[in-house]
Amino acid sequence: MLVLGPLGFTAPWLLLALAALPVLWLLLRAVPPAPFRRRFPGVALLLGLTDDKAETDKTPWWLLVLRMLAVAAMIIAFAGPVLNPQDRQPGTGPLLILLDGGWADARDWPRRIDRASALVEDAGRAGRPVAVLRLTDAPQAPVFQAANAWTGRIGALGPQPWAPADLGPWAAVLPQDGFDSFWLSDGLDHPGRAELLAALETRGAVTVFESPRPVVALRPAIFEEGVVKVRALRPAAGGEAEFEVSARGPDPTGAERELARVGVAFRAGETEAVTDLSLPPELRNRLTRFEIVGLRSAGAVSLTDDSLKRRKVALIAGGGTREGLQLLSPIHYLQQALAPVADLIDGTLDDVLLASPDVIILADVGRLSVAEADGLLDWLEKGGLLLRFAGPRLAASDVSRDAEDPLMPVRLREGGRSVGGAMSWGEPKALAPFPENSPFHGLAVPADVTVRSQVLAQPDPDLAGRTIAALTDGTPLVTRKPVGQGQVVLVHVTANAEWSTLPLSGLFVQMLERLAVSTRPATPRAGDLAGQTWVPGAVLDAYGTVAQAGDVAGVAGEVLAEGLATGPRDGLPPGLYAGADRRVALNVIGPQTVLAPAVWPDRIAVEGLAADREQALKGAFLGGALALLLADIVASLWLTGRLRAAGGAVAMLALCLLAAPPSAQAQQGGAQDDALALQATTAVVLAHVLTGDPQVDALAEAGLRGLGRKLSERTSVEPAAPIGVDLNRDELAFFPFLYWPVTATQPLPSAEAYAALNRYLRTGGMILFDTRDADVAGFGGTTPEGRRLQELAAQLDVPPLEPVPADHVLTRTFYLLQDFPGRHAGRPVWVEASPPDAEQIEGMPFRNLNDGVTPVVIGGNDWASAWAVDDAGAPLYPVGRGFAGERQREIAFRFGVNLIMHVLTGNYKSDQVHVPALLERLGQ
Amino acid sequence: MTQDLVLRARAETLGQALPPLLAAAEHLSATVILGGHGRRRAGMGDEFWQYRPADAGDSARMIDWRRSGRADSHFVREREWQAAQSVTLWVDTSRSMAFTGDRARPPKADRARLLALALAVLLLRGGERVGLAGDTAPPRSGRAQVDRLALALAGDAPADYGAPVVSGMVAHGRAVFLSDFLGQMTGIEDAVARAADKGVRGALVQVLDPAEESFPFDGRTIFESMGGTLRHETLRAGDLKARYLARLAERKDRLAALGRASGWHFLTHHTGESAQAALLWLYAALERGR
User: Cα torsion at A844, A848, A853, A856 (round to 10°)?
Assistant: First the structure.
């Protein structure tokens, strides 16, 4: 390769042809433009006239220059010019390919695999043995094998949802023989990287590949000062960058969707960006994760655990509040302790029950009315936590005296006791250490907590089991009883400092925390986790996709605590770990994780990041030569006086070359729209979505034509010829029904098209999605079409779905049907879920279901093939075998008829539930 | 043949727009064939003119006995002398007439034929005798002559430029020459002179294509006559425009002068214009020429 400054030539000897240009000059100069022969009777009058000037006999100089430039450009183009050529030396000997394989690689993993595959192929051509290592694995010696042994395996490699651990041990396992290395780095510094690099350099040349795409990660969100703080970080301080963070969680119906979206902007020169997200508690408590929109990486996803949740706590004090005695108020300390960490609700018991709080605290409340008690019990059965504090009123009342009150964990002895007072013997009692089965186990008991008065529990057989905290003399201080899914906890002292110093101590807050009354601190301490087995509920893969953990084994609390400090690793995938009473999110990026950019020494060649990338200029030169030749055509025409005649054609050509596609489309647009509108509105028109696959489009068209014929034959619906709809261009409002065959390769519609589709769905349109794959993998499974459907529908406003219930109006709009075969049979078809409160009226064969038309019908039975007919009306595709097949085709047609009837008449047939009532009203 | 039919149909259509054209007759003697022209004097004809007392030279056969019976003397019934005019048409069918500057326009020959036939239709309707110069279609009257004329007009001459033919021209008749008159002037002048010698008067209609008037050419061009016998090469045709137009104007002047000198009318007609205007002018010219 010849290199001249920034230009290199792959075939430099061709440049010698430039020397021939002067010859060309002479040749071209001698040949004037060819004359134009013209028949003209007036020539008789011209005879004898001579030209004024004879100099244009030769080609004008500027035309010569034009032609010379064109030829020179062609010569240079074929010499293979390359801008910023990079000299690649094909290596020899074994080649080791290292992939970081961590979460940061996931953002462009296919590109890395492509690069690695290309390297392996190159090595295979050069006969070099290859080894591929993924650094997130445990250190292992590379096994050099023939390249073709690796080609299949490389594609199967995937990134891991954690960062490579210490790379130092890898250096030790490398073989001593020389080999070259190619390191596909994720752009982050990992511990031991320098050691490994040094070890590799002793073996041979090292080349590094880094992706130019930036690494951005999301820290766990924290709740501070009443807002959720979303923090993003990046390894290197660059210019300004803005990302959108999506907060996701279940909506009231349980389907997961985006609850909020907030932009987070890095300022120039900063590596961390913070933004505030203010959400109402209802939404905030539903958050399950944050993710950076458009980034597929586990680092861009941050799962939230209980730390963001704020519990709703209702505080109810017995008796009227006495003004001026705030410090004596039974709930003063509770308010102080809980206000920062929970949402407090005030009000009467009836009112707060309506707000369905997580916890209700009754401080010194004695007798409850029957209605209140019933309401509380119902609430407890559903999982509420009732925390009661004793007090003078409770001690004076006869609640739970003779028989155990359902709202009390134990029976109480009359009166209670006082110790250490002026009128009693003994010292104030201290707390005993918490037993192992107590939720308070592990909390340190301060010595200065003393109890002077308390209510006493009646000794009962199960008292010991219900005691979770006791005094040093063994009398129960806190007792607990499960009720349904909830529990009742009684603290045998007051919630204020009257009977004990407990509310004044830090232990009080910790105990509330352990009882899940207050929200825990953001990061659990190791001690909190120890001693339990934590079972992963949901785990993240490297691409940031949340999946159910399935059979991933639980981990010990100590391991989890270590993982929280150092990040996930093999055997401890990031995810949501559930313990006995809380859930802990283990994220790739912890609160303290620091992202450091990988800095490579200057001697290492780094690919992929180079600002001046190699760029072949052959196309540009050839294009330039072509443009010059076109200009030469125009100039020659002009010279010979033929430009006027050819003017139209030339102008047309120029128009085509310059800006034809958009302008042509724009010109056609208006007229086309009108034509489409007229065509679509003069009759009922069934439409199908153009997928870009001509075969599928033709099939859909034939299918709808067949269905249209059947409709005309059997019903009063007489559709016109079906229309193919281009989602990106055509107005959808004209069509009551869209058939959307899903192909695996179909492009996603534009954002405007999605807006139009959502408008269409909301305003009563219906789309029949047909994956045409017989739904072999089950709904939402793993066929390519199924995955494409998920991607297509991700941005659609699709309601919750369910398989068609037996009493859906679709089963009886025209024919009575129970299954909906197309070319395939027996697979479920999904429609909008019926409302949860739908109930069957006595004597009615079906429920009173949706008011309206289901906006989508999803299935994979390939209906269009069953419906498709040719121009003569004969079926195009076989369905099944013999008579059974024809019967299946007939049922397919019936499904089509029912579907169109459903689209056109809505829930008309559903209204039949009212017929008996109407008849009754008519007096029959 | 179908082409002739088309030509005739178009000519008929064009002719319908005008009242029958009666050519003026100045001379009666040689072509005494009764026609539609009353000569305002006694002679041979169908229309009654006057009764006159019989003279000595009148044969008995000429005496109108019915009139004479009502009087004492003899009367001869005289009829108005009626004569038809002979109009000879010459249409240039040489190859130069096949030129058209634009595919949308008919060639000059088409327009010349159309004008000739339309004029013939008009004249025949007026009772005149119309024929073609040369011996293909001698002057005759009657509707059937239209077909013969149309047939005779269909042929093309192989020459590059045409010169008027004087043979077959009836003395003291009328003549119309339709051509582009771009050939040698000598032939034209000669023909007009010989026609004038015979006492024939008429009209010269120069049919030109608009392209021949505007000379819209530029660049290096080889101009060839339609038959290829003449050629002229130029490097910049645009430069020739002014001189060409000057020569064309000179040619028109010469033709007009020729007309004036011999009592003929001259018109330049362009194929881009309406044929009606030219026919109107021809109508007026033949009326005027008496």
Answer: -90
Residue A794 CB burial class (10 angstroms; 0-12, 13-18, ≥19): exposed
In this structure, CATH architecture of domain A217-308: Sandwich (2.60)
Residue B21 confidence (pLDDT): 35
**Torsion sign (Cα): A416, A422, A427, A432:** positive
Q: CA B203 to CA B178: how far, in whole Å?
A: 8
Q: Model pTM greater than 0.80? A: no
Task: Give CA angle at B36 (B33, B41), nearest 5°.
Answer: 80
Chain A residues touching chain B at CB-CB below 8 Å: 32-47, 49, 51-54, 56-57, 639-642, 644
Helices and strands per DSSP (H, E), number in chain A: 24, 41
Shortest distance between the Cα of A54 and any Cα of chain B, in A, equals 7
CATH class of A311-514: alpha beta
Question: B86-91 and B174-179: which strand pairing?
Answer: parallel
**Domain residue extents for chain A:** 2-33+56-85+621-641, 95-212, 217-308, 311-514, 526-586, 645-673, 683-916
Distance between CA atoms of residues A737 and A478, nearest Å = 65
Residue of B nearest to A32 (CA): B220
Check whether domain B2-27+85-288 has CATH 3.40.50, yes or no: yes
Architecture (CATH level 2) of domain A683-916: 3-Layer(aba) Sandwich (3.40)
Residue contact A52–B239, C-beta within 8 A: yes
Please give, one letter per residue, the 3-state secondary structure of A175-199: CCCCCEEEEEECCECCCCHHHHHHH
What is the spatial distance between Cα A729 and Cα A639, in angstroms, rounded to a whole number? 45
Give pLDDT tens digits for B174-231.
889 999 888 888 888 898 888 888 888 889 999 999 888 888 887 778 888 888 888 8
Counts of helices then strands in chain B (DSSP H, E): 8, 9
Domain ranges, ordered by start, for chain B: 2-27+85-288, 37-83
Quote the percentage of chain A above a pLDDT of 90: 4
- Report the length, in residues, of chain A: 924
Test the A interface: residue of B218, B245, B255 with most A CBs within 10 Å = B218
Topology agreement, domain A311-514 and domain A683-916:
yes
E strand map for A186-252 = 206-210, 217-218, 222-224, 227-233, 241-250
Contact A49 B244 (CB under 8 A): yes
Q: Consecutive 10-residue runs of chain B (290 residues): their mean pLDDT?
A: 68 55 31 44 66 83 87 82 77 87 84 84 78 84 80 80 82 86 87 87 90 83 84 81 90 91 89 81 70
Answer whether A47 sits within 8 Å of B232, measured CB to CB: yes
A711-757 confidence digits (pLDDT tens): 999 989 888 889 888 888 888 888 888 999 988 888 888 888 888 88
What distance in Å separates residue B219's CA from the closest CA in chain A?
4
Contact between A54 and B238 using a beta-carbon 8 Å cutoff = no
Query: What number of C-beta contacts closer than 8 Å exist between A and B?
Result: 107
Q: From CA A685, how far away is CA A719, in angstroms rounded?
A: 5
Q: What residues of chain B have any CB closer than 8 angstroms to a CB in chain A?
A: 96-97, 99, 161, 180, 182-183, 209, 211-212, 215-226, 230-240, 243-244, 247-248, 251
Range list of β-strands (E), A649-729:
685-689, 720-725
Q: How far is B165 from chain A (nearest CA, A)?
A: 20
Q: Is the dihedral of CA A620, A624, A629, A633 positive or negative?
A: positive
> Strand, helix or coil at A466?
helix
pLDDT value, residue B136: 80
Instruction: Determine the Cα–Cα distance for residues A572 and A578; give it in Å rounded to an integer.
Output: 13
